[in-house]
From TrEMBL:
<dbReference type="InterPro" id="IPR035906">
    <property type="entry name" value="MetI-like_sf"/>
</dbReference>
<feature type="transmembrane region" description="Helical">
    <location>
        <begin position="21"/>
        <end position="46"/>
    </location>
</feature>
<keyword id="KW-0472">Membrane</keyword>
<feature type="transmembrane region" description="Helical">
    <location>
        <begin position="73"/>
        <end position="100"/>
    </location>
</feature>
<keyword id="KW-1003">Cell membrane</keyword>
<keyword id="KW-1133">Transmembrane helix</keyword>
<dbReference type="InterPro" id="IPR005672">
    <property type="entry name" value="Phosphate_PstA"/>
</dbReference>
<protein>
    <recommendedName>
        <fullName>Phosphate transport system permease protein PstA</fullName>
    </recommendedName>
</protein>
<dbReference type="GO" id="GO:0035435">
    <property type="term" value="P:phosphate ion transmembrane transport"/>
</dbReference>
<feature type="transmembrane region" description="Helical">
    <location>
        <begin position="120"/>
        <end position="141"/>
    </location>
</feature>
<keyword id="KW-0813">Transport</keyword>
<keyword id="KW-0812">Transmembrane</keyword>
<dbReference type="Pfam" id="PF00528">
    <property type="entry name" value="BPD_transp_1"/>
</dbReference>
<dbReference type="GO" id="GO:0005886">
    <property type="term" value="C:plasma membrane"/>
</dbReference>
<comment type="similarity">
    <text>Belongs to the binding-protein-dependent transport system permease family. CysTW subfamily.</text>
</comment>
<dbReference type="GO" id="GO:0005315">
    <property type="term" value="F:phosphate transmembrane transporter activity"/>
</dbReference>
<feature type="domain" description="ABC transmembrane type-1">
    <location>
        <begin position="75"/>
        <end position="280"/>
    </location>
</feature>
Length: 292
């Protein structure tokens, strides 16, 4: 019987520990670089925009004078846009994921559909803008309204929500389904009472990431012809509107240096909206995490 030599073990262990330290240092460096980029970005935005951020900035409409420029129309327009995007994309996305995971037959056609939904998540946003221009703006004659833009943005984030919801539903233990069926529940009751509540934290995480992308996208809005400056607020989903990324894009592209500070203040407002959306999602997710 051959015994392991102690010196060989110690030598190999030392080399393994050194390799472990090297990779730990690489991962730490990658984390620090990412944090450094984030800190520089935040410092740049806050240092530029905090001087222009005021109540008047939130209450004024856009202007060709930097000192009078405000973000009221873009902020309200973005909220209108999210009121269309959130219910449309979440209902369709979660519904599609439930069908693919719980009802569809597990065959090649289903696998082909899943693969193409995953591929759609990587398609550039301008392509969805062209699709929205063809279907919603021209074929359905919705123009550059809130509804057309909301449907276009829903198409953009729908694959992300479907994939996230599929993964969340798939992660629910099979024992919970079996226990529900064993107590006499139907498939629909099992989905509503057991699967969806257990999968909700994962669904919310994916949905909020997708909605965060939708509220910050500019390319699809440019393609469907959303204006950058308006002097009124939308009163319904069929009205013309503008959005925060469009307004920020317009300010940042102007040659006057003063508009760069206005754009930075607009970015701070956009980040505040994203922070509020993420906080609400985290609160709901933590509530259901404790339950399941």
């Amino acid at each position: 019987m051959r015994y392991i030599e102690q010196q060989t073990v110690v030598k190999r262990m030392n080399s393994r520990l050194i390799i472990n330290k090297i990779f730990q240092s690489i991962f730490l460096l990658a984390t620090l670089l990412a944090l450094l980029a984030l800190v520089i970005l935040l410092y740049r935005i806050v240092s530029q925009g905090v001087g222009h951020l005021s109540l008047e900035f939130l209450m004024n409409f856009a202007s060709r004078f930097p000192e009078k420029a405000g973000i009221k129309a873009a902020l309200i327009g973005s909220l209108w846009l999210m009121m269309v995007v959130a219910p449309t994309s979440i209902i369709l996305g979660v519904g599609s994921a439930i069908y693919l995971e719980e009802y569809a037959k597990q065959n090649r056609i289903t696998s082909f559909i899943r693969m193409n939904i995953s591929n759609l998540a990587g398609v550039p946003s301008v392509v969805f803008g062209l699709l929205g221009l063809t279907i919603f703006v021209r074929a359905m004659a919705l123009g550059n309204s809130v509804l057309a833009a909301g449907f276009t943005m829903s198409l953009l984030i729908l694959p992300v929500i479907v994939v996230a919801a599929q993964e969340a539903i798939r992660s629910v233990p099979g024992e919970m389904r079996d226990a529900s069926y064993g107590m006499g529940a139907t498939k629909w009751q099992t989905i509503i009472k057991i699967i969806l509540p257990a999968a909700l934290p994962g669904i919310l995480t994916g949905s909020i990431l997708a909605l965060s992308r939708a509220i910050g996208e500019t390319a699809p809005l440019i393609v469907i012809g959303v204006p950058v400056i308006i002097q009124f607020l939308p009163a319904g989903v069929m009205d013309t509107f503008t959005a925060l990324p469009m307004q920020i894009y317009d300010w940042s592209s102007r040659p006057q240096q003063e508009f760069q500070t206005v754009a930075a203040a607009g970015i701070m407002v956009l980040m505040a909206v994203l922070l509020i959306m993420n906080s609400i999602a985290v609160i709901i997710r933590n509530k259901f995490d404790k339950r399941y």
